[in-house]
Design goal:
It contains twelve helices and eleven strands. The protein has 382 residues and is α/β, with parallel strands linked by helices. The protein has a single domain, classed as Glycosidases (TIM Barrel), CATH 3.20.20. It has an eight-stranded parallel barrel with strand order 1-4-5-6-7-8-9-10. A two-stranded antiparallel sheet has the order 2-3. The N terminus is likely disordered. Bound molecules: beta-D-mannopyranose.
């Protein structure tokens, strides 16, 4: 019947509009660049294919077969040496940008970070940025050097606040100067003030109230987006281990200030803790999946790993069960920083074969599969 038919088509077109905009409705920056908006929907889309595997500082340095360090080699990453492909998500840290330092806190030149971000972006990969800033009230103190109520002292004192804005100006300059070869600004995931359920950083749970943390977060994001006009960020909220949904959300600044829901969790004391680690990671993934589905936001394990990979089948026996059918957009393992501090396989590492099995399982997406997902553009044709 014509009436029913036209009602139906009206309903359908409404639904199509909703669906089309639905992928971006939950994104916080309405003025985000087209590539940033596409990345946001791309991260949700690719989660149906597998979990993007990433590593911190993967392109900047790593380990040789004898565990000596390589630093700054072009086109190299330990994951590529082992698997033939770079990780499809690369993490970087901007710690010490606030000091106008040439290198970040782990000795990587900011110029190199900028280049690696561009190269990874042009390969279709994803870039995520954490920040371990020194204490803004006293730059001689590191991110781990806990002052009493730093955040309160920044928010409540105009001079401190103005000084902190100068630091945010430096971040904004960095973000705005990340350009591709066409001169367009490159989108990045920005993951500030992480692991705040713990108290090891000056922004941690014991050093500010939930309200202060939220205010500080909102101030940072508003300042970058509204004052500095940075429109290339997806913002990731990233707790450490948490007990339940209430604990996860205790310091959540709100759906209008967060694009990606995440948490960090490290596997410590293996093998005694193996099954507890898997169960815990699955439980926490379940919490952020529920929240992500409700809010239309992508969700991710923003840091994880087993230091020194002491279990040869860690990838298929520990990580794979966590990732399988998880709906996670990505998982990032930490850096191959030192012979006693590494999280990804390198040439000759005991877990290299097992890593390849995980690669073949189809549960993770590395460079090639992510490139074919076209995360910064329209969905790839079937
Ligand atoms: C920690 C360690 C440190 C490093 C810091 C920031 O987990 O890797 O050595 O300085 O992250 O990258």
């Amino acid at each position: 019947m014509p009436l029913t038919k036209s009602l139906l088509s009206l309903f359908l077109s409404f639904e199509i509009i909703l669906l089309a905009s639905g992928f971006s409705f939950a994104q916080i920056d309405k003025n985000a660049t087209p590539a940033t908006k596409n990345l946001y929907s791309g991260l949700k889309r690719s989660a149906a294919k597998g979990v993007i595997l990433g590593q911190q500082d993967a392109l900047a340095y790593g380990l040789n077969a004898d565990k000596s360090r390589w630093i700054g080699d072009e086109g190299r990453s330990d994951v590529k040496t082992v698997s033939g492909e770079h990780p499809a998500l690369i993490g970087y840290d901007l710690g010490h940008i606030e000091l106008d330092s040439v290198n970040n806190l782990d000795g990587v030149p900011f110029e190199r970070i900028r280049e690696d971000i561009r190269k990874n972006y042009e390969r279709g990969g994803v870039n995520t940025i954490s920040w371990h800033p020194n204490n803004p009230l006293d730059f001689s103190k590191t991110a781990w050097d806990k002052e009493e109520f730093t955040i309160r002292k920044i928010l409540s004192d105009q001079t401190n606040k103005k000084n902190f804005e100068k630091t945010l100006d430096k971040l904004a300059t960095f973000f705005l100067n990340l350009k591709d070869s066409k001169g367009d600004v490159i989108p990045v995931i920005f993951r500030p003030y992480h692991e705040h359920t713990g108290s090891w950083f000056w922004w941690g749970a014991d050093h500010c109230t939930p309200e202060e943390y939220k205010q500080f977060w909102k101030f940072t994001i508003d300042y970058l987006q509204k004052t500095k006009k940075v429109h290339s960020l997806l913002t990731a909220y990233s707790t450490d281990n948490f007990k339940n949904k209430e604990h996860y959300l205790e310091r959540y600044p709100g759906d209008n200030f967060v694009d990606i829901l995440g948490f960090d969790t490290y596997h410590r004391n293996p093998p005694a803790s193996d099954s507890a680690f898997i169960a815990n990671a699955k439980r926490m993934t379940g919490t952020i999946r529920d929240l992500g589905k409700t809010n239309g936001k992508p969700f991710a394990i923003t840091e994880t790993g087993l230091e020194q990979l002491t279990e040869p089948t860690w990838w298929t026996h520990i990580l794979q069960p966590i990732l399988e059918n998880s709906g996670l957009s990505y998982v990032l393992v930490w850096r191959n920083g030192r012979p006693d501090h590494y999280y990804a396989p390198f040439e000759g590492n005991d877990t290299a074969e097992d890593f390849k099995k995980l690669q073949q399982s189809g549960n993770i997406l590395l460079e090639k599969k992510v490139a074919s997902e076209n995360l910064y553009g329209k969905p790839a044709r079937k």
